[in-house]
Amino acid sequence: MNKSDLRFKYKALRKQLSEDKIEEMSLAIANKLLQLPIWHKTYFHVFLPILEQKEVDTECILHILSGKDKEIIISKSDFKTCSMTHFLLTENTTIKKNQYNIPEPLEGIEVPIRKIEVIFVPLLAFDTKGNRVGYGKGFYDKFLSECNPETIKIGLSFFEAEDTITDVFENDVKLDYCVTPNTIYTF
Questions:
Q1: Which of 14, 63, 98, 139 could pair covalently with 54 via S-S, beta carbons 3.0-4.6 A apart?
Q2: Annotated binding residue 135
Q3: Which residue range is the domain that position 92 belongs to?
Q4: 93 has a pLDDT exceeding 90
Q5: What pLDDT does 120 receive?
Q6: Does residue 132 have a known ligand-binding role?
Q7: What integer is the mean pLDDT of 123-136?
Q8: Residue 83's pLDDT band (boundaries 50, 70, 90)?
Q9: Cβ within 8 Å of residue 164, ≥6 positions away
Q10: How many domains in the chain?
Q11: Which residues bind ATP (predicted)?
């Protein structure tokens, strides 16, 4: 299936999820993450979910990271350049939704991309080869392409893998893992 069809399919599937189901599946994903060989790392990038898009709720992941004394990094989007600036999440960080309902830090301590060791990646769909489909603006492809080659990229999905995404582009960056409520995919 191509990216456009997958976007349509998975947006429709997400719309059917209740808040309780999202909470239950998000917790299952967070618990599965504990099995990954990533916990010796220090700098973890986490997306804050767009609740209106019924994304994986990362609150449990934030609690795990905080409990393990990890440095948590969140982003602010620039829609003119389709790029993101990354900030350390601290108790003083003020979060506000932008015009697209993306929760973002208003300001803070900027963290260079090269410091980020693990990235939890939002997505709509993914395939068995580690390719992902996002919303199509290219924010994460740009971000992931600027990271160190050894940065661990972990997709989070409520749904299992598709066999193949038919229109993968040369500059699409593959995931290292994708975690669903039931499965850890390794690529």
A1: 14
A2: yes
A3: 3-186
A4: yes
A5: 98
A6: yes
A7: 95
A8: very high
A9: 1, 127, 128, 129
A10: 1
A11: 3-7, 132-140
- Flag whether 173 is marked binding: no
Q: Alpha carbon 181 to chain centroid distance?
A: 15
Mean pLDDT estimate for the chain: 96
Residue 170 has a pLDDT of 82
- Residue 142 tokens read as 């740009």
pLDDT for 134-163, tens place per residue?
A: 988 889 999 999 999 999 999 999 999 999
Residue 122 sits in a domain whose CATH number is 3.40.50.10420
* 172 in a known ligand binding site: no
Residue 48 counted as an annotated binding residue: yes
Q: Flag whether 55 is marked binding.
A: yes
Does the annotation place 144 within a ligand binding site?
no
Beta-strand pair 71-78/43-45 = parallel
